[in-house]
């Protein structure tokens, strides 16, 4: 999986909203829509935390499983082809400071 693509995320959010409108309490969803963006983000975070507390986090998707298998195979085929964490961290911090 790559970095979060905000446009893809927004598209998924619209699809989820449409599905929610069709299947669930539209009155509740209308109330959520009236919240500020900050309040909506807080709500999403609280909902996600609640899902985690109930150990109800979904497993990886088929695409994620495929990617994990690919990475494991790559690591097994080339176990010495690694970059130490200290180098990765230093490189990332250097890019951030530019």
Structure notes:
- The chain has one domain (6-97).
- It is 73% helix and 0% strand.
- It has five helices and no strands.
- 0% of the residues are buried.
- The mean pLDDT is 83.
Quick recap of the structure?
The protein contains five helices and no strands. It is mainly α.
Indicate the percent of residues in helices.
over 70%
Shape: elongated
Question: Number of helical segments?
Answer: 5
**Beginning-to-end CA distance, first to last residue:** 26 Å
Total tally of structural domains? 1
Mean pLDDT: 83
Say how many strands there are: 0
Structural class of the helices, strands and pairings?
mainly alpha
> What integer value in Å does the Rg equal?
20 Å
The main sheet comes to:
none
Encode the helix/strand succession as letters.
Answer: HHHHH
Strand content: under 5%
Q: Residue ranges: pLDDT <50 for 5 or more in a row?
A: none
